[in-house]
Amino acid sequence: MREPSTEHLARLQQSCDACFGTPEVWPLIARAYREPQRFYHTLLHLVELFDVLAPFRGDPLWTAIELAVWGHDAVYATALPEYAENESRSAQWLASVVREHCSSSWRRAHAEQLLLAGYLIVATKLHRVPDQLAADPILRRVTQLFLDADLAILAAPAERLIEYDRDIAREWAQDPDAPAEVFRAGRHQALVGLREHSPLFHSTEFASLEAPARANLDLLIQRYARA
Question: What is the pLDDT of residues 193-218, one digit of tens each?
Fold first, then answer.
């Protein structure tokens, strides 16, 4: 598992303390994203996601986006059937952490943004804007930005893309160079399912990633295709 640099870790901690209004949450974030089964869904993933989302820090709903980033992979099981509940349990985890560690004044001031963050986290299961948010253009755009940022890894340069894919295999206890057939089939199905999303990126801000992401998906699908 690769750790962010000392500088990046310090920035993460400072941002976390500022977001939640308390230093009590950072140790929980760090512990969750350092679980031993993680190789991609780590603190480094948070660094990359915040980097991608940096241009939107001035958005009126930035707090909801930031809360969603902190919480979206807080629960990450890699075994069935628990895997299917990762998103809903992560949203519950975030709500529980806020309830137990943030001040009552913080909770009152951020209640609506925390609720939105929960919707954003659950939306990562299908990477589609849920009906509750689709009707409002402001909420729809914020959801699109968050979901698009989470998929931005698919448009990464070749070296980072392969590293990401190998880390996913490791999270499922696979040898990246010789994964089991059941994993190959499941990974192939998941990648094909992603490719069927049209478009992959819904916001105008991330539209330029569409072509490289599709090319990369084709490469990954070929890696897992049956010989």
Answer: 999 999 999 999 999 999 999 999 99
143 falls within a domain: yes
In which domain, by residue range, is 42 found?
A: 6-224
CA atoms within 13 A on the CB side of 80: 3
CA distance 117 to 112: 9
Summary mean pLDDT of the chain: 96
Within-domain flag for 169: yes
Cβ atoms of residues 121 and 94 within 8 Å: yes
At 2, the pLDDT band (50, 70, 90 cuts) reads: confident
Cβ partners under 8 Å of residue 225, min gap 6: 188
Q: Residue 36's domain is classified under what CATH number?
A: 1.10.1300.10
Q: Is the pTM of this model over 0.85?
A: yes
Residue 36 lies in a domain: yes
Count the domains in the chain: 1
Question: Long-range contacts for 43-49 (Cβ within 8 Å, ≥24 apart)?
Answer: 43/3, 43/4, 43/9, 43/12, 44/2, 44/3, 44/4, 45/73, 46/12, 46/70, 47/4, 47/8, 47/12, 48/152, 48/153, 49/149, 49/150, 49/152
**What are the Cα distances from residue 195, in Å, to 87, 141, 165, 211, 222?**
21, 22, 15, 11, 12
Q: Which helix (H) or strand (E) holds 29?
A: helix 26-33
CA-to-CA dists, residue 99 to 65, 103, 112, 218, angstroms:
18, 8, 14, 43
Contact in structure between 75 and 89 (CB atoms under 8 Å)? yes
Residue 1 lies in a domain: no
